[in-house]
Design brief:
About 40% of the residues lie in helices and about 20% in strands. The chain contains eight helices and nine strands. Strand 2 and strand 3 form a beta hairpin. Helix 3 packs antiparallel against helix 4 and helix 4 packs antiparallel against helix 5.
Length: about 240
């Protein structure tokens, strides 16, 4: 017998159409939609099926609802989602609601990105990469700057604790007895600029991103910082 898990995600009742439109932009098909006597929708994309139910007083800003989608082509899905969102919204939303986050290699062996719908549900899309897997614990690396990146990513993307993430980065960038590699510096600066934008600090974000763009990288270092450089282009664009 084959079992299947279907996430049930809450949404603000009057936003259910905009939520369905968001998933349509991501390439999902709406297989059920009703707005009365209660709001309920079903969207499907291949083997992925999500059920959305309306709540009268649901606050998207405080949502912690999430589910994880494992794929064998996270880069392809990220590109497809971004393309669909740009076509639907005229731009790629990178902050606020809805939004799509950057593609990142996580320290625990998963390459992933986050997409958040208009009512605050976060869909985490990931692919196990070499050396990773569910059997390996998601432990933080020990090296100072790798650990800072790991923890700042966790605070910013998983906990949405932007001040906490900013504090981690600010602390390690002020260290005098240790220095990050050029690639790590770019990664830290881009994430710091990203966080500043999310906090509404446009002037601060501009400074962090300009500093990141000014870092000189070798060909190998550019490859290491590839995802951060792509995010830098998005944020400055």
């Amino acid at each position: 017998m084959t079992e299947k898990t279907i996430p049930l995600l809450p949404c603000r009742r009057e936003l259910i159409q905009s939520v369905v439109d968001f998933y349509t932009a991501l390439g999902f098909e709406t297989t059920h939609l009703q707005k009365s006597p209660y709001a309920y929708a079903v969207v499907e994309r291949g083997a992925v099926e999500l059920h959305l139910y309306g709540m009268k007083d649901y606050d998207p800003a405080t949502s912690h609802s999430s589910c994880y989608v494992l794929t064998e082509d996270v880069d392809g899905l990220h590109a497809a989602f971004r393309s669909g969102l740009k076509a639907a919204y005229g731009r790629i939303p990178t902050r606020g609601l809805p939004r799509i986050g950057p593609l990142k290699d996580m320290s625990y062996g998963v390459r992933q990105f986050l997409a958040t719908d208009p009512t605050g549900n976060t869909i985490r899309v990931g692919q196990v990469i070499s050396g990773g897997g569910e059997e390996e614990p998601a432990t933080a690396p020990k090296e100072t700057f790798a650990r800072a990146l790991h923890m700042a990513d966790l605070f910013a993307d998983s906990k949405q604790d932007y001040p906490g993430a900013a504090k981690i980065i600010d602390r390690v960038l002020k260290l005098e007895d240790e220095q990050p590699t050029p690639a790590q510096r770019v990664q830290l600066l881009v994430l710091r600029g990203d966080i500043a934008q999310r906090l509404g600090d446009e002037e601060g974000a501009r400074g962090w991103l300009e500093e990141a763009a000014a870092v000189q990288l070798s060909t190998v270092e550019r490859e290491t910082a590839h995802d951060a450089l792509a995010r830098l282009s998005d944020l400055r664009g």
